[in-house]
Amino acid sequence: MRSSRWLRIVLMAAVSAVLAGCTAASPSGSGASGAGDDAEHASLTYWYWAESDAPGANDWMKGRIAEYQGKHPGVTINLVPQATDTLIGAFTTAAQSKSGPDIATQWATLPVLSQVWGGAVAPISDYVPDSERKNWIGTQENTYQGKVWGMPIYLIGIPLAYNKSLLARAGVTAPPTTFAELLSACAALRRVGVTPIGGGNKDGYFGAWFFSNFGKQNLDAVGDLQQAVIGTTDIKDPRVTGFYEPLHQLHANKCFNDDIASLSLDDGMSKFAGGQAAMAWGTDGIVAKWAKTLGADAIGVVKTPTWGTGKLASVYNTTQSSTAFITSWSAHKKAAAQFLAWLHDPANLTSWYAATGIFPADTRFDQATISSDLGRSLWELTSSPGSVWLENYLPPAVDGDGDLAAGQVITSGGSVADAVAAFAKATQKWRGQNPAEVKNYTTWSGR
Amino acid sequence: MSSTQVRVRPVAGPRVSGRTAGRHRAWWPYLFVLPAVAALGFGFVLPLLTVLRNSLYAGSVYQLEWVGLHNFSALFADDTFRTALANNLRLLLTVPLMTVLALLVAVVLNDGVRGWRVYRTVTFLPYILPAVGIGVSFSVFLQLNGGLNASLRAAGLGALARDWLGSPHWAIWSVAGVVVWQQLGFGVVLFLAALLSLPGEVTEAARVDGARWWTLQTRIHLPQIRGTIEFFVVTEAITVLSWVFAYVYVLTAGGPAHSSTVMEFYIWENGFAHGNVGLASAAAVVVLALAAILIAVYLRVRVRAANERAA
After folding, report:
1. Chain A residues whose beta carbon lies within 8 Å of the beta carbon of residue B66
2. Do the Cβ atoms of A3 and B143 come within 8 Å?
């Protein structure tokens, strides 16, 4: 009798423990360090993503880790590169069980903050002093409730790169700076048999970039988008989603390669590197890579042509893109913070730029190391004041479900109305499915 | 009392009543099976219960909120899920196609054509290739300017060229085509093995009675491998219902604009990429229900066939 009761108690305890583990984790956002948190003695796991933005990033990070481990023999760092497609999902799964990396990477702003709201992130501002952080560029992208939650490593912008000789062949004497000029350049390039703009949208990322490039152009502030996302204004308002019209116009006027819908973003952009397309949007790092193939002198870069009339129409797109942060469950937060801060050592900033051609997100970056005109043009754009990367302000679910899909509607031959409807449906679905995140988003956006 | 009768005195020990002793004895078998039951419980029952429970909540894994059956109504109001469901049904159309094609190939190979073993291997080869590798290869082959369309254009059939993966009208059929290409070998090998194991006497007797090739196949051979065919049909139906994620993920990622999404992909996308755990769980419950129906049909068919054989 007694044994059966004990068995029942043990089984119930086991089941309860497992069920408790399966229930929703309460957001803690704990920044507390464990008793054994020693900056000089730790084994860290770092889930890292940057290579897609910055070719050469993985090798650079491996080199930095090797050097850091040499200088700090008590610290080992296990680098685990992450895939683009599963960057959010893999971390969210790990966060559910509060296990996995000590340092992780997410894209800036909403992808980071949604993990903050879930209690998976420790504020890096609790571990890195102001005197160091004041040099970091772009911390406002991950600031919430007065704390900085992640560390920027680099800055990227998305210029429109153009092939000087192909434009010249079509009689286009200056790169397009307005949307009308862009359409005109497309027509001229078509006439001489050159694909005007190389792109690929099978994965939806070309459309997402288009959102960042054109979606802000009728907005006066990012708050205009935030209000529409939470539903206080109409997401179908042309000020917010009217940017699908220029995408449709470019597609209808055959400004893109004909196979844009069946190529990935990378494959589509590679047409520019291969000299098959006269223009392409690419990150600073990708442009730097193209310069190695085509020659830095053969390429020029301009800001995305102006289409809209909002206050954000003329500002550039810059973001830290990926953010490194310390997980709330890490037992080695001090060690993680010390390593991350060390990545901003001036020597590391220089080596980062040399390895990737992308600018470090730090005011201590020595601009004198920029040796080419192309590099200086990119720096001028990327460091221009007031830059906004609009995609950062979309909840990840809306970005994935709406932003990416809506762009695909257009590039696979659909209408503007269908694209807008897809975007609107995604925001509505997000509001219905994520009540807690909606509350946090609303608070964060100051509405 | 005979001399052979020996009175045995009970050994001294703790007094145990008959009821209690029976109860102790009854526990031992359960203890032996406990590890297996626990493994099943943790591996199958607990996840199942968790999914059922989560289907009644909304929100991310961090903050779930009770919504009752709302997720199920939201699910069927979501045109992406309806598209996914419809696409799974479209993929079900590949099952009869695969079955007929596999039977045709198997029957021909069973006739002992020269080099049939080579053909069998070649047909089976796609089945042992990893789905991701197949997906990557076909995602290049099926591009608008990929190998398939280049071949069509070279053959003067350019009018048939399509944007196989980039068109919302063709994407799911392209996935279906790849699934057929990959799964066909399984059917061929399965059917061929069944045909080769048939007793030769029946075939000989039918031939002696004047049965021709068609009659031999349709009246003698196929009825004898009916159980194998049923097994294949149900297995493939379950496969296209709940095992095509890798193809969709690699070939189209459910696009363009969700047009080639399937229920599995919908579950993954909502549960892992978008944080809609409740909606994903509700979709998983629907898939589970559909798979259970198919399995029930299969079991019923098997029982009926067994009864017929016994009769």
Report:
1. none
2. no
The CB-side HSE value for A225 (13 A sphere, CA atoms) comes to 28
Torsion sign over Cα A9, A12, A18, A24? negative
- What is the distance in angstroms between the Cα of B45 and the nearest Cα belonging to chain A? 11
What residues of A are in contact with residue B60 (Cβ under 8 Å)?
92, 114, 118, 434, 436-437
Does B61 contact chain A (CB < 8 Å)? Answer: yes
Question: Cβ of A435 and B58 within 8 Å?
Answer: yes
Asked whether the beta carbons of residue A259 and residue B166 sit closer than 8 angstroms, the reply is yes
ipTM over 0.95: no
Residues 6+ apart with CB under 8 A from A194: A166, A169, A170, A277, A278
Rounded Cα gap, residues B166 and B251, in angstroms: 10
Q: Which of A196, A203, A206 is nearest to A252 (CA)?
A: A196
Gap between the terminal Cα atoms of chain A: 61
> What DSSP string runs through B135-181?
HHHHHHHTSTTSHHHHHHHHTT-GGG---TTT-TTTHHHHHHHHHHH
Q: How far apart are CA A257 and CA A248, in angstroms?
A: 14
Give A-chain residues touching B256 at CB under 8 angstroms: 201-202, 261, 405, 408-409, 411-412
Q: Are strands B65-66 and B57-58 parallel, antiparallel or unpaired?
A: antiparallel
Contacting residues for B85 by C-beta, under 8 A, at least 6 apart: B263, B286
Determine the distance in angstroms separating the CA of B275 from the nearest CA of chain A, rounded to an integer. Answer: 7
Residue A104: name the closest of A118, A122, A117 by CA: A122
CA-based radius of gyration for chain B? 28
Cα dihedral sign for B75, B77, B83, B86? positive
The Cα A316–Cα A336 span in angstroms is: 33
Instruction: Return averaged pLDDT per consecutive 10 residues of chain A, 447 residues in all.
Output: 48 42 38 70 97 92 98 97 88 88 96 93 97 94 94 95 97 97 98 97 95 96 96 96 97 97 94 96 92 93 96 93 96 97 97 93 94 92 91 93 95 96 95 90 86
Instruction: In whole angstroms, give the CA distance from residue A396 to residue B12.
Output: 74
Give the Cα separation of B63 and B223 in Å (integer): 56
Is residue A155 within 8 Å of residue A357, measured between CB atoms? no
Report the distance separating Cα A206 and Cα A234, nearest Å: 25
